[in-house]
Specification:
- This protein has 299 residues and is an alpha/beta fold.
- It has three domains: 117 residues, Glutaredoxin (3-Layer(aba) Sandwich), CATH 3.40.30.10; 84 residues, Tetratricopeptide repeat domain (Serine Threonine Protein Phosphatase 5, Tetratricopeptide repeat), CATH 1.25.40.10; 82 residues, Alpha Horseshoe (Serine Threonine Protein Phosphatase 5, Tetratricopeptide repeat).
- It has 15 helices and five strands.
- Strands 1-3-2-4-5 form a five-stranded mixed beta sheet, sandwiched between helices.
- The longest helix has 17 residues.
- The protein starts with a helix and ends with a helix.
- The N terminus is likely disordered.
């Protein structure tokens, strides 16, 4: 039912018009949102190339703009009044008046860019807002809620890299590591180096490593018994991070770097860098960690 309703809603943003209906379909409607008028004719080859591209772009805009098609052979009066001399011609109406337009069959990327300018970049705004809300939910510890929002975005755009990376991180947060791995496998190869993907992959690697560290209390006891046991402190940092206790994990790795920068082939510093990748550049723990690490390394 939901898919049928979405399909019906998409169909309402594209329609054919007549000379008699032009004022209602275009002039009046453009006072609510921009309306593109596609002037075309059955004999026009470039029109047959452009119209499907227009329809796809307008439907993807999800109500930010509408498309009205006018066959100039059947309805020559309006294009004649507007001075349309060649087709395909696309005129954008905003607030009841012609506002912009273009001639000829443009490629999809240029059509989308035209719509972005026309709507002042609001196309795709819903997705951006959803991803922002999901990221915030994940940062606040609501991994299940974040996963639901990321999944909603992916239902509309299965290749959305930010949503895939976010969903993988949400799975990591809930301990569903196999699902996180499967989600990351869905990232297009060309986007494998994306920062969000790298962060999700780092988080997954950390979670997998933390599984084999043993009980947290045992590691804490080892460190308490011998503060110079760097391996125990290192393992404790990994375990603490796995529990979401980032500040404490940071403290332990910083302590190792401060006492012995060369320990385990610079292992503590390298682990901090992986933490920063997994946490993200704007996380408070990352910002604090980079500051403290720099004060040691460049002292």
């Amino acid at each position: 039912m939901l898919q049928e309703a979405q399909a019906a809603a998409a169909d309402t943003v594209v329609k054919d018009t007549t000379t008699q209906a032009f004022v209602k379909d275009v002039v009046e409607e453009s006072k609510r949102q921009p309306v593109l008028v596609d002037f075309w004719a059955p004999w026009c080859g470039p029109c047959k190339q452009l119209t499907p591209v227009l329809e796809k772009a307008v439907k993807a805009a999800k109500g930010k703009v509408k498309l009205v098609k006018m066959n100039i052979d059947d309805h020559p009066a309006i294009p004649g009044q507007m001075g349309i001399q060649s087709i395909p011609a696309v005129i954008a109406f905003v607030n009841g008046q012609p506002a912009d337009g273009f001639m000829g069959a443009l490629p999809e990327s240029q059509v989308v860019a035209f719509l972005e300018r026309l709507t002042k970049g609001s196309i795709g705004g819903e997705t951006k807002d959803l991803l922002k809300a999901a990221d915030a939910a994940l940062a606040e510890g609501d991994a299940a809620g974040a996963a639901e929002v990321y999944s909603h975005v992916l239902a509309e755009d299965a290749a959305n890299v930010q949503a895939l990376a976010g969903l993988a991180r949400a799975y990591v947060a809930t301990g569903a590591l196999d699902q996180a791995r499967q989600t990351l496998a869905m990232v297009p190869e060309a986007k494998a180096g994306d920062a969000a993907v790298a962060a999700a992959r780092a988080a997954l690697e950390l979670a997998e490593g933390a599984k084999n560290l043993g009980p947290l209390t045992e590691l804490e006891q080892k460190v308490a018994a011998n503060p110079l046991d760097h391996q125990a402190r290192f393992d404790l940092a990994l375990a603490l991070n796995g529990k979401g206790r980032r500040a404490e994990a940071l403290d332990h790795l910083i302590a190792i770097v401060r006492r012995d920068r060369k320990w385990n082939d610079d292992g503590a510093r390298k682990q901090l860098v992986q933490f920063f990748d997994a946490w993200g550049p704007t996380d408070e723990a990352t910002i604090e960690g980079r500051k403290r690490l720099s004060s040691i390394l460049f002292a």
